[in-house]
């Protein structure tokens, strides 16, 4: 079960990465079509915007799983293993409770928009609940992932079950590539 | 402390005429309720952008808000009657159409009520004009193959009907877009020309008056129903006062803005009757589309608008 | 009193090791609930914040710089610059700084700049006999140019918070960026002149210069396309990021052929990770910001400021001091997201240009990135140079002084910042 949650988070994160890649292509296409054919598109800005929202909220649970979220470890880094465990449990509980609120109220918002029939009113006229619904959906994944990590931490295993990496390491990998 | 707090979210700064109009409402309500009602204004989109306001007020996240009327076009396509080209193109027509309970405004207010928000009053913003560089936009020919900034889907269709290329963008992006030439022609209210100093980047205004821009002040309906009757009376009275005040103010604001634009070197052009007739002819497909999209309510409003004209 | 309690709670949460995004968002939600405000504002803020065209530039600039990085562009740039200036006194150090400056013009992040140039420059400089702590300090500080010279992710975020034009902010960063590069170069040359261990390099041959320059040319062209494209009005900053990204794919994938499929996948995934962690903090800060706005905290602080300062100079000095202290402990972007919404309302009253203030803030963030104990660039250089924190921290302080000197220069001569965006 935990493995499945890990896999879903990881997979949606990768999907999000390629959604961002797609926005790069769309926006370049927009610039090209504006200058080459003098024809600004009507869909690029709106679709790119939707992809950004989708990408961000689909990928949060992966960053929780891999422990990539930026945090201040000036104090945390100095703690012994027992206090670190306490801090980790506290952090995960905060994340779970927060996610609970977002799932509840975020669903209320998307539902309200669905019932009323709100939509962007633009040329594509996309229903608002599509993008509003992405927020609570993303946080369902965050809550599940955080519960998984909470179980791991309480059971004395590593956060992320070995997949985790500290944020500085991540940034390094992000920037170094395979190095010299 | 106050029994009731009304928080109002506004996209524009407090010093804008919509913000000043909210201040008038605030003073009126606070004075007449002897402090039982407190009004807090959150301007400059501190809390919500214009596009979020219908949802924020309708869901009850905040008590009150100001949104442009056509923000509701997704759920109520008929509101775009105000953007139908040359539908209400004189001050007299606009005043008739936007009077409380009129055959135009009445049905729209009722439709908005179904989204969870009650309309307290309408805030006039003014008519739409065209901005250009090196020559006026007298006829549809002048925007053919040009990139035109628009602020609504219907206005986009209007531009397309005239052979132009519409680009939807928010007001705050205009200055840069005109400067960079991302668009060739602009569509906006004349007060925006003054507040955004658009004369730095454009040199001609054409007074087409092809659309009427309206904002509405809404209050969450559930919240409203929970208010004591005495407070409802006070709020309604203040809203009516604010409604009239802003409509009177806007004529003067527009006159001042035109004067300021001229002072800063802009040419102001008024199209002739013949030119207007040509514009109207071009816009026929937009009206057809409106009839198709806006359903029964749309048909009802079109009929009412025709009666107002006569 | 409320303000102090909220501030205290925020610091407790941040230092407990709770991710910054959740500390801000969670505390924001909690104070909404306590104050009887609608909790619906929290998910609305999460949605509304990301629904913004300016922020779309964040993933795109990150994609571009990650692709360039994996494509080995840092190495090419460094080799070319070194071939030209390596034989000057302190030539290798000068080459390092110039490479940082050039890479900064195609990257929006200081971590990326420090890591890219650091990987190639640190071993070479040490081999040439530069003292270790000088080398590490130089790289940590040089990397921070990444957020001052456009494009810059903190400037995009500042533009998002204050509704200032990102274009103007980018242009405003060029002047102070060049001043800082110049100060670093002068300092390095003086340092090398008086150093005993340092040995100068031999001048490169014409052939070396030619071949290295040709390899670096496409990346230089990219930097020019971006700056010229934004400035000349061909595209908006967000579009520039997209076009730059596609060009970086062409350069590394087709022209230089250094980008393999697996490297591309890594670049794309890493850009996503950084994007999501940054934007989640931006969204969390928005919840916190709305909550304190409903408590009228920014309004009260702004009033306090306008009552106590009637001179911009005193205000800037106090803000700078606060930022230096906060910067010791706080992550740089969080500092901006917490402080700017609170300070911005006072700027107009004090007559401080918001674009100038943005650049000032970015330089202060650069300082925060290299002051111990919390500074992302310190960590990066520590890892790249296989060093201890102390070694890096010892080497960093002269550069810190030069950065603060730059702030002072920008204050005395505001045109360093404002000439390019307003007068050209
Ligand atoms: Na940069
Ligand atoms: Na620091």
Q: How does this model look, in words?
A:
The complex is a heterotrimer of chains A (180), B (310) and C (424). With 180 residues, chain A is mostly helical. Chain A has one domain. Chain A is built from five helices and no strands. In chain A, helix 1 (2-36) packs antiparallel against helix 2 (44-65). The longest helix of chain A is centred in the middle third of the chain and has 36 residues, at 81-116. Chain B starts with a strand and ends with a helix. The mean pLDDT of chain B is 93. Chain C has helices spanning 2-15, 20-34, 41-50, 57-70, 73-85, 91-104, 110-127, 132-143, 145-148, 153-162, 166-194, 206-231, 237-255, 261-294, 297-308, 312-329, 332-350, 354-370, 376-384, 389-412, 415-423. The model of chain C has no long low-confidence stretch (mean pLDDT 90). The longest helix of chain C is centred in the middle third of the chain and has 34 residues, at 261-294. Chain C has one domain (38-423). In chain C, helix 17 packs antiparallel against helix 18 (354-370). The site of one sodium ion has 6 residues of chain C, from helix 16.
Gist?
In chain A, 72% of the residues lie in helices and 0% in strands.
Which SSEs are present, and which pair or pack?
The complex is a heterotrimer of chains A (180), B (310) and C (424).
Chain A: H1 2-36, H2 44-65, H3 81-116, H4 128-154, H5 167-176
Chain B: E1 4-9, H1 17-32, E2 37-42, H2 53-58, E3 64-68, H3 91-98, H4 105-113, E4 117-132, E5 147-150, H5 153-161, E6 165-168, H6 174-180, E7 186-189, H7 190-195, E8 204-206, E9 212-220, H8 221-225, H9 229-263, E10 267-269, H10 273-282, H11 284-293, H12 295-309
Parallel strand pairs in B: 1-2, 1-3, 5-6, 8-10
Antiparallel strand pairs in B: 3-9, 4-7, 4-8, 4-9
Helix pairs in contact in B: 1-9, 5-11
Chain C: H1 2-15, H2 20-34, H3 41-50, H4 57-70, H5 73-85, H6 91-104, H7 110-127, H8 132-143, H9 145-148, H10 153-162, H11 166-194, H12 206-231, H13 237-255, H14 261-294, H15 297-308, H16 312-329, H17 332-350, H18 354-370, H19 376-384, H20 389-412, H21 415-423
Helix pairs in contact in C: 1-2, 2-14, 3-14, 4-13, 4-14, 5-6, 5-12, 6-7, 6-8, 6-11, 7-8, 7-19, 8-19, 8-20, 10-17, 10-18, 11-18, 11-20, 11-21, 12-13, 14-17, 15-17, 16-18, 17-18, 18-20
The complex binds sodium ion (2 copies).
Q: What is the number of beta strands of chain B?
A: 10
- What is the string of SSEs of chain C from the N terminus onward? HHHHHHHHHHHHHHHHHHHHH
Distance between the termini of chain C: 47 Å
Largest sheet geometry of chain B: 8 strands, mixed
Question: How confident overall, as mean pLDDT of chain B?
Answer: 93
Q: What is the count of β-strands of chain C?
A: 0
* Radius of gyration of chain C, taken over Cα atoms and rounded to an integer in Å: 22 Å
Radius of gyration of chain B: 19 Å
β-strand percent of chain B reads: 15-25%
């Amino acid at each position: 079960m935990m493995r499945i949650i890990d896999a879903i988070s990881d997979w949606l994160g990768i999907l999000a990465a390629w959604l961002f890649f797609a926005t790069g292509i769309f926006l370049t296409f927009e610039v090209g079509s504006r200058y080459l054919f003098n024809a600004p598109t009507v869909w690029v800005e709106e679709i790119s915007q939707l992809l950004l929202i989708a990408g961000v909220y689909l990928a949060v649970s992966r960053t929780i799983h891999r422990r990539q979220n930026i945090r201040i470890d000036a104090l945390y880094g100095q703690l012994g293993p027992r206090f670190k465990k306490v801090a980790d449990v506290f952090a995960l509980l905060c994340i779970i409770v927060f996610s609970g609120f977002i799932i509840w109220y975020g669903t209320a918002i998307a539902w309200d928009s669905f019932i009323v029939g709100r939509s962007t009113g633009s040329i594509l006229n996309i229903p608002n609940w599509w993008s509003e619904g992405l927020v609570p959906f993303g946080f369902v994944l965050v809550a599940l992932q955080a519960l998984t990590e909470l179980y791991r931490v309480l059971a004395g295993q590593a956060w992320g079950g070995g997949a985790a990496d500290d944020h500085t390491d991540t940034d390094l990998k992000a920037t170094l590539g395979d190095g010299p | 402390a106050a029994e009731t707090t009304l928080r109002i979210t506004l996209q524009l700064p407090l010093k804008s005429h919509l913000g000043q109009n909210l201040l008038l409402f605030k003073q009126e309500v606070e004075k007449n309720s002897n402090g039982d009602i407190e009004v807090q204004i959150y301007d400059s989109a501190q809390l919500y952008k214009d596009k979020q306001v219908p949802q924020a007020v309708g869901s009850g996240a905040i008590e009150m808000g100001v949104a442009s009327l056509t923000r509701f076009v997704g759920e109520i396509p008929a509101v775009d009657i105000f953007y139908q080209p040359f539908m209400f193109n004189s001050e007299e027509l606009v005043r008739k159409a936007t009077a409380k309970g009129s055959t135009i405004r009445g049905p729209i207010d009722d439709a908005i009520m179904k989204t969870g928000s009650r309309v307290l009053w309408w805030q006039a913003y003014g008519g739409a004009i065209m901005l250009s560089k090196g020559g006026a936009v007298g006829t549809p020919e002048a925007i053919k193959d040009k990139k035109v900034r628009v602020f609504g889907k219907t206005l986009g269709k209007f531009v397309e009907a005239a052979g132009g290329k519409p680009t939807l963008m928010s007001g705050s992006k205009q200055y840069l877009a005109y400067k960079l030439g991302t668009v060739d022609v602009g569509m906006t209210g004349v007060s925006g020309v003054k507040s955004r100093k658009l004369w730095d980047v454009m040199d001609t205004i054409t007074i087409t008056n092809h659309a009427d821009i309206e904002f509405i002040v809404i209050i969450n309906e559930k919240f409203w129903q929970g208010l004591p009757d005495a407070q409802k009376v006070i709020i309604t009275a203040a809203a009516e006062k604010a409604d009239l005040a802003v409509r009177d103010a806007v004529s003067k604001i527009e006159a001042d803005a035109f004067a300021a634009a001229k002072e800063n070197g802009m040419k102001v052009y008024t199209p002739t009757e013949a030119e207007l007739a040509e514009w109207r002819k071009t816009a026929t497909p937009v009206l057809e589309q409106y009839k198709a999209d806006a359903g029964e309510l749309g048909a009802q409003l079109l009929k009412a608008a025709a009666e107002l004209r006569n | 009193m409320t303000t102090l309690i909220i501030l205290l709670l925020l610091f407790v949460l941040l230092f407990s090791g709770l991710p910054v995004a959740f500390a801000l968002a969670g505390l924001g939600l909690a104070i909404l609930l306590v104050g009887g405000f609608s909790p619906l504002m929290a998910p609305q803020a999460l949605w509304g914040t990301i629904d913004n065209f300016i922020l779309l530039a964040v993933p795109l600039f990150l994609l571009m710089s990650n692709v360039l990085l994996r494509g080995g562009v840092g190495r090419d740039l460094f080799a070319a610059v070194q071939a030209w200036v390596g034989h000057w006194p302190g030539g290798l150090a000068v080459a390092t700084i110039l490479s940082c400056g050039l890479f900064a013009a195609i990257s929006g992040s200081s971590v990326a700049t420090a890591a890219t140039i650091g990987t190639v420059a640190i071993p070479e400089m040490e081999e040439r006999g530069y003292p270790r702590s000088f080398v590490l300090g130089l790289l940590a500080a040089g990397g921070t140019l990444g957020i001052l010279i456009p494009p810059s992710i903190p400037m995009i975020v500042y533009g998002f918070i204050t509704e200032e034009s990102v274009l103007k902010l980018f242009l405003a960063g060029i002047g102070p960026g060049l001043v800082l590069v110049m100060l670093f170069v002068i300092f390095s040359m003086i340092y090398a002149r008086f150093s005993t261990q340092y040995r100068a390099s031999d001048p490169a041959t014409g052939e070396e210069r030619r071949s290295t320059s040709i390899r670096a040319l496409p990346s230089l062209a990219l930097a020019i396309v971006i700056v010229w494209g934004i400035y000349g009005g061909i595209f908006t900053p967000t579009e520039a990021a997209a076009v730059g990204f596609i060009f970086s794919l062409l350069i590394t994938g087709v022209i230089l052929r250094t980008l393999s499929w697996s490297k591309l996948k890594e670049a794309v995934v890493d850009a996503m990770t950084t994007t999501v962690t940054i934007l989640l903090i931006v969204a969390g800060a928005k919840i916190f910001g709305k909550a304190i706005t409903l408590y009228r905290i920014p309004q009260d602080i702004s009033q306090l400021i306008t009552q106590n300062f009637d001179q911009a100079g005193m205000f800037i000095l106090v803000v700078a001091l606060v930022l230096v202290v906060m910067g010791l402990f706080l992550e740089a972007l969080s500092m901006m997201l917490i402080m700017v919404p609170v300070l911005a309302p006072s700027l107009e009253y004090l007559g401080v240009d918001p674009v100038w203030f943005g650049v000032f803030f970015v330089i202060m963030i650069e300082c925060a990135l290299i002051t111990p104990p919390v500074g992302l660039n310190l960590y990066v250089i520590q890892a790249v140079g296989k060093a201890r924190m102390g070694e890096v921290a010892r080497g960093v302080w002269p550069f810190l002084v030069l950065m603060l000197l730059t702030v002072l220069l920008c204050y005395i001569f505001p045109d360093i910042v404002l000439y390019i965006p307003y007068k050209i």
